[in-house]
Amino acid sequence: MQLLYQMDVTGETDPELLAESLDDDFDDAHTQDQAVKLSVAAWANHEKADELVCDLAPKWPTKRQPPVDRALLRLAYHEMITGYAPARVAINEAIELAKQYCAEQSPSFINGVLDKVFKDLQEKQLIPKTQQAPVSDDDWLTDAVEPDSSDTQARD
Predict the structure, then answer these.
(1) What pLDDT digit, counting tens, does each position of 54-80 carry?
(2) Rounded CA gap, 114 and 53, in Å?
(3) DSSP letters for the chain
(4) For the stretch 14-48, what's the b/e string if a residue is b when 16 or more beta carbons lie within 10 angstroms of its beta carbon?
(5) For 12-44, what is each residue's pLDDT tens digit?
(6) Cβ contact 33:61 at 8 Å
(7) How far is CA 28 from CA 14, 22, 34, 95, in A?
(8) Cα–Cα distance between 87 and 85 in angstroms, integer?
(9) Domain formed by 2-21+29-130, architecture
(10) Domain range summary for the chain, segments of one domain joined by +
(11) What pTM was computed for the model?
(12) pLDDT, position 127
């Protein structure tokens, strides 16, 4: 989110310069590298994200959104379309970050917009197949507690 905010406000998109702006005391080199890669990839999709958000929330075009809100919307959009994180996880993370770093009304705005984004992407089948069907409350942990048949065969 920090790097997307920085790209938006300063226009700087050079990965090396972005990496230099990160605090070495806060994150290790691997985490910083992953953050830069994710941010640069999300920035590459920012125009599509902005267009969709503007279509779904026409009273709040990109220029009216606070920069941190825009960064969160762009990051969650990228995570959803690439499968980087399950859509509901991406939405929840954006809401939690908004509670920490944004205005009082931002979490509900981000929740509402991202819910619409998710439904739109699902309808257009732009969400990776693994995220198409919601997981039931009873099935969400099945893959972790029941071994995959290929795992069983590999051990035999």
Answers:
(1) 999 999 999 999 999 999 999 999 999
(2) 8
(3) -HHHHHHHHH----HHHHHHTS-TTTS-HHHHHHHHHHHHHHHHTHHHHHHHHHHH-TTS-GGGS-HHHHHHHHHHHHHHHHTSS-HHHHHHHHHHHHHHHS-TTHHHHHHHHHHHHHHHHHHTT-S-GGGTSPPPTTTTTHHHHS--HHHHHHH-
(4) eeeebbeebeeeeeeeeebeebbebbbebbebbee
(5) 999 999 999 998 888 899 999 999 999 999 999
(6) no
(7) 20, 10, 10, 25
(8) 6
(9) Orthogonal Bundle (1.10)
(10) 2-21+29-130
(11) 0.81
(12) 86
Interior angle at CA 147, CA 86 and CA 156, nearest 5: 140
What is the average pLDDT across 77-98?
A: 96
Rounded to whole angstroms, the Cα distance separating 72 from 93 reads 9
Q: How do residues 96-125 score in pLDDT, each as one tens digit? A: 999 999 999 999 999 999 999 999 999 999
Q: How far, in Å, CA of 17 to CA of 96, rounded?
A: 28
CA dist 139 → 55, 108, 149 (Å): 34, 28, 17
Residue bearing tokens 């732009």: 126
d(CA 92, CA 22): 24
Give residue 130's pLDDT. Answer: 62
